[in-house]
């Protein structure tokens, strides 16, 4: 088992085009600049200082996570095989394609090896560029080969430094988004500081470097920053076109680097749909965003050799349905309250029906089943009937796909982030309800205008989008812990924007009958500064202690296994075992696999279930025939799976296999009435007894405290 052990000693404010006029040329101390030239110089100085701080914080974040990674593993000192083992599970699989491209005789041969790959899945030739989102590995490997850096920088460092560099882009994008929303770079500073001090809940890049989300989320943050700017009023046509181009590029890069892009952008499309229905966003800009999402995804589809999972995505079906429904219902935003509500309900039903029909039609035409496991998982997760489906239960039993733990909120509260977030969310939700109701009612009465003005200024289009975005992604995070990183990073932006927003404090002070322009400015700057001081005094010592703590990667059993495979098996040998381990086998040894952790393929899921019969109650003859059908030469058994204690009864891998096979589970506890005792003992336990019925098919060739490797006999 891989462990980490203690290291042994000796080894300014930017002027927004739509900001209220009273905020123009206002210094942080609240004094009004009467000289227009002085005000312009102050704005230039503020933007310059804010930009420098943004870049500095981004670079510091990159250095911070890189240092944590080095201190945690002693990455610079460990062997190459240990470095590769540290890329666990699917991370190792993705990095193996970067390594493969680097080691290829030429770029052309490397690309050919990916397009016609026969080592990732035995007895099959697959197109890696179609099946997986690995264009980033291809691009980096080509860049490494053509740049004159081979003598100075190892390939692995070029790779990890690129990922840590993207963290700088991520933090700068969050900083800019908050700055655009609030009109002051102080908000961006607070957002970046919250992101860093809540690192445990905002990123996991330092220990899952090649994970797809670590590539994708920085581009998603850039896209959100560009959308925030796009939703400002009074943009010049040139500015709007350039911003739309930035949104498209960021959307394309986000889609290209993560296989779950379509689900994230579907939530984003739902946010746009809700806001458009409530007349909180300009319809023309929303339409452009729908088109950008579709075109970005289709371009990725072309690059991935017309990946059917993309064509059958709900996002494309939904966006097309919205555009069709809008064409059918041309007078959607006219009439009184009841008339609008009726049209709105009809519009929602029409979009829903069209989405389901179009999606069903596309999947029927393409015979698409690649994403069925996701819908099975969602159906079981939200209580629409119990399931014995192996794939769905495999997800349900993983902590990462469970509900967000409550201790997450205590950690976020310790930095004051969750309190500030709740405060801003409460105020803007009330404002959204009031403004949305007013828009639907179509009220233009003069007497309501003054009363509602305070709500209107606190819910500009960019703020409205940020509100619905954070609510929807918050719901996703609460239901699925792995997706919390999409929410917590935006939580930093949203909370800091609210604390630094003139409109929010103006609303509160007007409600308390305490409003003055100078008082608003004082609160707007003093609260964030006090918060920053609190964060600095409380968490700076902890960060310094964290940076000074030195540990070392330690996994001798896996290192021994990989070295044995490289030294004692032919290059063409085919290995079977757990998905997680086999990703490391491919990376460290280059041997052929029977299965792997990239689960978005129906045939692979069925193959994995068959391979996992090595941990079920099956006869040695059955297991042998299954393994040989996939060309297996060696099978690796792991004690940590065979005798698993990490999960409770019912969620251990062997339990999932027993239930799927109709067998009673091991141990004390209830079983479903139709489950029957197996006629055979558990394979992974019984094979170790060297009984004749097993040795005729399997010969043990390697073992240590964790792993047992058996060579399969080649019967005629």
UniProtKB/TrEMBL annotation:
Pfam families recorded: Dpy19
Transmembrane segments: 41-66, 179-197, 217-235, 242-258, 264-281, 312-329, 341-362, 416-441, 462-481, 487-509, 521-540
Keywords, comma-separated and alphabetical: Glycosyltransferase, Membrane, Transferase, Transmembrane, Transmembrane helix
Its membrane topology: Multi-pass membrane protein
Compartments (UniProt record): Membrane
Cellular compartments per GO CC: nuclear inner membrane
CDD domains: Dpy19L3
Biased composition (Basic residues): 1-10
Top-level taxon: Eukaryota
GO molecular function: mannosyltransferase activity
Record has Membrane as a keyword: yes
Residue span of region Disordered: 1-30
Record protein name field: D19L3 mannosyltransferase
Organism, scientific name: Rhipidura dahli
């Amino acid at each position: 088992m891989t462990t980490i052990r203690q290291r042994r000693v000796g080894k300014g404010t930017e002027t927004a085009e739509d900001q209220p006029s009273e905020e123009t040329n206002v210094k942080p101390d609240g004094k009004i600049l009467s000289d227009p030239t002085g005000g312009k110089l102050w704005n230039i100085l503020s933007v310059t200082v804010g930009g420098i701080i943004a870049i500095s914080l981004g670079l510091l974040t990159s250095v911070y996570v890189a240092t944590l990674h080095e201190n945690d593993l002693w990455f610079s000192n460990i062997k190459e095989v240990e470095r590769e083992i540290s890329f666990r599970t699917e991370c190792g699989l993705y990095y193996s394609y970067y390594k493969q491209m680097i080691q290829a005789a030429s770029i052309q041969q490397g690309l050919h090896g990916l397009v016609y790959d026969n080592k990732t899945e035995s007895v099959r030739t697959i197109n890696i560029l179609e099946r997986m989102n690995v264009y980033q590995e291809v691009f980096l490997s080509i860049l490494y080969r053509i740049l004159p850096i081979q003598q100075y920088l190892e390939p692995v460092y070029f790779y990890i430094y690129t990922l840590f560099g993207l963290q700088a882009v991520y933090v700068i994008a969050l900083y800019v988004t908050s700055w655009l929303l609030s009109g002051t770079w102080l908000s961006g500073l607070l957002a970046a500081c919250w992101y860093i001090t809540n690192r445990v809940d905002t990123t996991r890049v330092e220990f899952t470097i090649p994970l797809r989300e670590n590539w994708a989320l920085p581009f998603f943050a850039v896209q959100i920053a560009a959308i925030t700017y796009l939703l400002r009023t009074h943009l010049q046509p040139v500015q709007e076109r350039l911003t739309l181009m930035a949104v498209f590029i960021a959307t394309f890069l986000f889609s290209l680097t993560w296989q779950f892009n379509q689900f994230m952008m579907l939530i984003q499309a739902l946010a746009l749909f809700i806001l458009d229905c409530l007349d909180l966003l300009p319809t023309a800009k929303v339409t452009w965003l729908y088109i950008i999402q579709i075109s970005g995804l289709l371009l990725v589809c072309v690059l991935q050799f017309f990946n059917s999972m993309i064509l059958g995505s709900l996002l494309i079906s939904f966006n097309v349905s919205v555009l069709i429904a809008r064409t059918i219902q041309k007078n959607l935003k006219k009439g009184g309250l009841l008339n609008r509500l009726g049209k709105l309900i009809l519009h929602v039903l029409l979009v829903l029906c069209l989405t389901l029909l179009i999606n069903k039609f596309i999947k029927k035409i393409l015979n698409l089943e690649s994403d069925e496991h996701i819908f099975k998982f969602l159906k079981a997760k939200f209580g629409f009937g119990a399931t014995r489906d192996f794939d769905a239960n495999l997800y349900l039993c993983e902590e990462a796909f469970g509900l967000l733990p409550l201790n997450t909120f205590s950690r976020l509260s310790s930095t004051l982030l969750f309190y500030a977030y709740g405060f801003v969310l409460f105020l803007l939700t009330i404002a959204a309800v009031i403004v949305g109701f007013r828009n639907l009612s179509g009220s233009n009465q003069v007497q309501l205008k003054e009363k509602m003005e305070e709500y209107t200024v606190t819910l500009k289009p960019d703020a409205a989008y940020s509100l619905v975005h954070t609510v929807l992604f918050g719901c996703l995070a609460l239901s699925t812990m792995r997706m919390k990183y999409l929410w917590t990073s935006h939580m930093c932006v949203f909370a800091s924007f609210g604390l630094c927003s003139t409109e929010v404090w103006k609303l509160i002070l007007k409600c308390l009958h305490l409003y003055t322009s100078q008082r608003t400015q004082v609160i707007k700057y003093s609260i964030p500064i006090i918060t920053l001081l609190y964060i600095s005094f409380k968490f700076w010592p902890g960060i310094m202690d964290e940076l000074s703590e030195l540990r070392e990667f330690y996994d001798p059993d896996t290192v021994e296994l990989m070295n044995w495979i490289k030294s004692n098996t032919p290059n063409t040998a085919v290995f079977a075992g757990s998905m997680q381990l086999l990703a490391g086998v491919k990376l460290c040894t280059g041997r052929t696999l029977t299965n792997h952790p990239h689960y978005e393929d129906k045939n692979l899921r069925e193959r994995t279930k068959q391979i996992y019969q090595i941990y079920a109650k099956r006869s040695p003859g059955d297991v042998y025939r299954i393994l040989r059908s996939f060309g297996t030469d060696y099978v690796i058994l792991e004690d940590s799976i065979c005798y698993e204690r990490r999960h409770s009864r019912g969620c251990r891998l062997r339990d999932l296999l027993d239930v799927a096979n109709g067998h009673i589970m091991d141990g004390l506890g209830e079983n479903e009435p139709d489950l029957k005792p197996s006629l055979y003992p558990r394979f992974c336990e019984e094979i170790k007894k060297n009984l004749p019925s097993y040795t005729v098919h399997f010969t043990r060739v390697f073992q240590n405290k964790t792993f047992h490797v058996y060579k399969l006999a080649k019967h005629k």
